[in-house]
Design a protein that fits this description.
The protein is mainly beta. It contains 8 helices and 19 strands. The chain has helices at residues 20-33, 50-55, 66-69, 153-160, 162-167, 242-248, 252-257, 361-365; strands spanning 80-98, 108-116, 120-128, 131-148, 176-198, 203-227, 240-241, 261-283, 286-293, 299-304, 318-320, 326-336, 339-348, 370-380, 385-395, 412-424, 427-438, 441-449, 456-480. Helix content is 12%, strand content 51%.
């Protein structure tokens, strides 16, 4: 180590580590690779039609969106051709609050904005006799882009450690600053095809397959890191360039650590999901559905576009990004012709999935599978107009070891409502609104300041929260006998 000469000290040795860019890149990877945007499990989107937005429960659907929710139930549409075109406008706010004492503000709030103005769902069905052929296209995972203008505590803490580290060797340092930014997008498109067969008036079955194509993109930087040490070269304690400061005192390794960094990375890959479903109609007023989606094996290949620093990203490296198997159960009950009552249950088998390539990760971080259940009702006010409302609850299975500012999961309650309108005998319009409320998460933890044997553990707490709203609209076309 080189020696420092400054006001209040004759010399001193730096004893700390800082690598903000590595933490920055790890955050981006974990946020987008393992995150779903809305309803569903840790990585799976289940909000796949405008009807879902306004009812929240579609597992036992026998309408056109059953091409995703209940392929076996499509045999109830009758003969002919049917189509559905949907879009949802989605906005999500993610918040992390840290009490780490070295940050420039304590507690400090970090806000991320996730936007998905286009979240499509397109379904086609052709029925003839007892056979039903269907296809669907939707964002089965991801689906949005996120922007954090101030970064997150996991990589700002390393920069904030410059204050106590420099002050500890006699260079009074009270401020730091950095220009931190990133944006990223993630979308897993699903291309699904199904064949259903009506065995009799009570039982229909379907087999299907979904091809999943995934693409994640990350762009960002940490630059212009500054500190205000008071020493002979900066007697007024003004904010000065950290790399230039460390270079001037012979600390070239720290000059490199605080130099500007940027990232420009793409990851892409594809996988196959086999799907089985059964629809039971024990009476004219009840439909019961069961669907099982097998685990999707998905490897993503990394492409580093910038030449200066890929961080933890290695060009041409493949990472595991599997999607879990899912078991879905639903009941649709029509006690009278004007009233529909729907019940849902979904289980996502997260404990069986190796999300990041570490064979023991889920054993330590996931205690149980992700669960989702809910209730929805629709009532026909007139022959043309129907109103609906619904509720859906998710129960996460992760423990505190999983929770971090990089990726967190808490229980949710979603409420939706809207209406459907028969524009004509062959066209239906659906409009829905949804708001999702997330339980607040808290995690006491500690951060290592310095390097052994002189390091200390600094305790602090992080608080996590999200909020999401959706507007969904769709048109259904019935070119056949419904």
């Amino acid at each position: 180590m080189g020696m420092l000469c400054g006001k209040g000290t004759s010399n001193g040795n730096l004893n700390f580590k800082i690598n903000p860019m590595r933490k920055f890149l790890f955050f981006v990877a974990s946020l987008f690779i393992t995150g779903s945007l809305l309803a569903g499990g840790l990585v799976t989107n289940n909000n796949q039609s405008a009807m879902f937005t306004r009812l929240q429960n579609r597992n036992a659907s026998t309408d056109i969106d059953a091409a995703y929710f209940n392929p076996a139930g499509l045999t109830k549409l009758g003969n002919g051709f049917f189509a559905s075109v949907n879009n949802q406008i989605i906005s999500q706010t993610q918040k992390v609050i840290s009490t780490y004492p070295s940050l420039d503000v304590t507690p400090k709030e970090y806000v991320g904005k996730v936007s998905a103005p286009i979240f499509p769902g397109v379904y086609l069905v052709y029925n003839t006799g007892k056979l039903s052929f269907s296809a669907g296209f939707n964002p089965i995972g991801g689906g949005g882009g996120a922007k954090y203008d101030k970064g997150l505590p996991s990589f700002e803490m390393g920069i904030s450690d410059l204050k106590p580290a420099l002050s500890g060797i006699g260079l009074n340092t009270t401020q730091y600053s950095a220009d931190i930014f990133f944006k990223g997008s993630s979308v897993y498109f699903g291309y699904q095809a199904n064949i259903a067969y009506q065995f009799n008036d009570m039982i229909s079955g379907a087999v299907g397959v979904r091809m999943v194509t995934a693409k994640n993109t990350y762009e960002g930087y940490i630059k212009d890191i500054k500190v205000n040490p008071v020493y002979l070269g900066n007697p007024t304690g003004a904010l000065i360039s950290a790399p230039q400061f460390f270079t001037s005192i012979g600390q070239t390794s720290y000059a490199l650590m605080t130099a500007d960094r940027q990232v420009d990375v793409e990851q892409s890959g594809s996988g196959i999901t086999p799907i089985l479903s059964v629809n039971l109609t024990p009476s004219e007023i009840i439909d019961i559905s069961v669907k099982y989606e097998f685990q999707t094996k998905l490897n993503l290949k990394t492409k580093v576009n910038n030449n200066n620093d890929g961080g933890i990203f290695v060009n041409n490296q493949e990472i595991i990004s599997d999607m879990p198997a899912e078991l879905s159960f639903g009941v649709a009950f029509k006690p009278i012709s004007k009233l529909l009552v729907s019940v849902n249950f979904n289980e996502y088998f997260d404990k069986n999935v190796d999300y990041d390539g570490s064979s023991d990760l889920n054993i330590n971080m996931i205690d149980k599978n992700f669960m989702e259940y809910g209730l929805g009702m629709e009532y026909g006010l007139t022959e043309k107009l129907r109103i609906s409302a619904g509720w859906s609850h998710t129960s996460t299975g992760v423990n505190l070891a999983y929770q971090s500012d990089q990726s967190f999961s808490t229980n949710t309650n979603s409420f939706g409502g809207g209406f459907g309108y028969h524009i004509s005998p062959v066209i239906d319009f659906n409009l829905g609104f949804q708001k999702t409320f997330y339980a607040e998460g808290n995690k006491p933890q500690s951060h290592t300041l310095g390097t052994p044997p002189l390091s200390i553990q600094v305790p602090f707490t992080e608080t996590y929260n999200k909020s999401t709203w959706i507007i969904g609209a769709g048109l259904d076309f019935y070119f056949g006998k419904k």
